[in-house]
Amino acid sequence: MKKAIALLLAGTMALSMTACGGGGAADTKADAETTAEASEEVTKLTEGLTPFEERQTLRLGFFTGSPLSYPFLFADKLGAFDALNIDVEYVCFTGGPAMMEANAEWDMASCGLGGLANGLFGYDFSLVDITDYEENLAVFAREGSDIAKSPEDPAAWKGATIVYPAGTTVQAVIAKYLNNMGLTLADVESVNMDNSNALTGFNGGTGDALGCWNAIALSAEDAGHVRITDSGQLGIKMPCGTFAKKDVMENNFDLVVTACTLFHRATEWVYESDDNMQQAADWYLEHCDEEGFLCNEDIALRTMEWYRGPSVDEWIDLYTKTSPDDAGLYTKRELLQAEKDILVGLDFFISEGKYTNEDRTRYLDDQRIDPSVALAAKELLGK
Prior knowledge:
This protein is globular. Helix 3 (70-77) packs across helix 14 and helix 11 (214-222) crosses helix 16 (297-306). It starts with a strand and ends with a helix. Strand 7 (161-164), helix 9 (169-180) and strand 8 form a beta-alpha-beta unit. The chain is built from 20 helices and 13 strands. With 383 residues, it is an alpha/beta fold. It folds into two domains: 2-133 and 239-380, D-Maltodextrin-Binding Protein, domain 2; 137-234, Periplasmic binding protein-like II (D-Maltodextrin-Binding Protein, domain 2, 3-Layer(aba) Sandwich). It has helices spanning 9-19, 25-46, 70-77, 80-83, 96-101, 113-122, 146-149, 154-157, 169-180, 195-203, 214-222, 231-234, 246-251, 253-270, 274-290, 297-306, 312-318, 337-351, 357-365, 372-380; strands at 2-4, 56-63, 86-93, 108-111, 125-134, 137-141, 161-164, 189-192, 209-213, 226-230, 238-245, 322-323, 335-336. The strands form three sheets. A six-stranded mixed beta sheet has the order 1-3-2-4-11-5. A five-stranded mixed beta sheet has the order 8-7-9-6-10, with helices on both faces. Strands 12-13 form a two-stranded antiparallel sheet. Helices cover 51% and strands 18% of the residues.
């Protein structure tokens, strides 16, 4: 579903003044101060970036309900894309694998590790950005159930039905937790539902356990379900990132550099003040409501407070700093930190039989983690 959400802040202010018409000098002064603040934010977000001579359109694969995508929206709402002569069209998804399958619809797309692995091995995309490290990938059980009473007892889990989005990072969390008890996914029954529907089904009595993430995980807690474990507790580092398609990298490279830079500057903006955090949460909730994604004001704010995306400098470091492969399996060159972070999750998928060590080698040989965008931003911004 495409939504052009680019806003002209000046136009928005003009409409507000018309709607409030006749408010007098105090209102006029307040409007002027708000306009000045908005202009200052745009200046900070776009510093060092050059507006395009011709209007550009960025088709963005957008992960509804997952903070890993939302700084793009925040930069857009603040007017930064418009100031640089860019329109953004949002193509919304609630799962990474589905996003990859629909790649004809987008130019760039952000998703979790399940979708990233799918994109790295199944398509000719460049991973140009790390946007988040998900710690709120969680597993729940009903209060009073055998699993809730004895969460580390294999007997409580064997034969249980777990509802979760298959092929996503939460599957890795579930598998890791089962492995810790000497079990595998073959010892349970898996029911595949997308993130939001999984909770709806679980609330309605489907399954014995639930796997979900972010806002839906917070909703599961609010519904009274018992958090059994999550990626943070298990020490699983699950990076999320942004792909750019080959034709976009070749034909509109500057657009990719600009978009990624705005993403990380908007991430920094969120944490500059409590007011910014609240505004980000309000925009997050507004978008979730538009897409029919389960959320409320409290969950929106908690979701944004949980999110910790990289700053501009941290993004550049991920794509420029190198060191040897921690597993010692790849010795042809040192690896980018971004490559190593992806390998943490990828090696787990390999241990589960989803991918092979040959896939691992090919991923590194082909250098699918592309540092060129971060390097261009580093030069452009004088880092």
